[in-house]
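okkk here we go again. third time trying to get the pyridoxal-5'-phosphate bound version out, last two times i messed up the smiles copy paste (missing a bracket lol). double checked this time i swear
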Amino acid sequence: MTSLPSRDKAVIWHPFTQMQTAPLPIPIVRGEGAMLYAEDGRTYIDAISSWWVNLHGHAHPYIAEKVSEQLRTLEHVIFADFTHRPAVELAERLLPILPSNQAKVFYSDNGSTAVEVALKMAFQYWHNTGQPRTKVIALEDAYHGDTFGAMAVGGRNAFTAPFVPFLFDVEYIPAPVAGREDEVLAKLDALLDENVAALIVEPLVQGSGGMVMYEPAILDELFRRVRTVGALVIADEVMTGFGRTGRLFASHYLTEKPDLMALSKGLTGGTMALGVTTCTGAIYEAFLSESKFKTLFHGHSFTANPLACTAALASLDLTLSPETAASMERIAARHAAFAAQIAGNPVVRNVRQRGTILAFDIHTGEQTSYFNSIRDTAYSFLRERGVLMRPLGNVLYILPPYCITDEQLNEVYERVIELLEMLEKSLVVKNE
Ligand SMILES: *Cc1c(COP(=O)(O)O)cnc(C)c1O
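finally!!
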């Protein structure tokens, strides 16, 4: 019998993977808590929550139980002209925990589609109100997904290069990180006019852009300024949602409220694909009319899939439990202590943390980009030692499921220290 990796290689094309040079994929047979169990008996601590989706651990029995009950009751139903309890209940439970101006929930399948829907709502809002606007402002190095609209509002880089001719124009301002606030505000002011339809941001933490972090006060100021020209604000909380930043949503750190929000990833606790776009009553009302031309013509075959909504409800039960709240605080405190421990390391720069996300740059004097060799070195080094981390270029980050134990966290920290020691030695060698 041919091995699973070779069978995979014969038929499958993996995401974000150069198939010619990538090593064979690792077959995972089982997951439990923060652990992944491979076919060959090796284990991995999932220190990045499987691309930031997992909140409560793999194959969580409570979520599994709820989803399997739902699977035997109603697996799916068309969502135009029909509805079901899990979709209604999820919307009823989400709205009260989101910023208080959010009034309606629109379902889709993933983070990119949640962003697409937010953009379409924003553009059509201006169309429906008879004052079409075409300017969108986004942050440099933003990531909002891989579909065309989501790519268009993301930062332009090597990932989007082949598609640039097909992406709509967007105006960029730098992320308002500490020290650059005045420059960012000046650039924003220069872009503001009556044609600005929307500002889109990943609030407080830009994920794929390298875990770039900035403060709530400056984001509030950006929101206030774009509002002076009536523009809408879109908060893409696909990564930051559901407790990642230390509060339930990053938007809860703000006094200003977004007009539209995009959620996915942690929404189902990482169990299955589901996206949510929420909006204010004012946006929703701009689509109400006797005329069908004002309808939001958007939908997906699996809109509001009952299994996914059920997984989301079960995940919410767990997320809102006192145990999870305590765990988030425990992880944040452990991260802070580890941050202090590595801050003075000669290969470490710019240690930063927000809630359960800890990130820092590795600096060895090499050119830094996603494509540099430090990334591959660090990735392999940690993976061979049973820790799954996926550096973003020279940015190393830990973003664990909330159920990760202290022992598992220690193991992750220790492996990172080993990596730093190895890099430090190679630095010394290079300088001799
Ligand atoms: C991952 C991500 C997306 C895209 O979500 P997918 O489910 O991968 O399509 C959008 N926005 C942000 C901020 C993300 O981190």
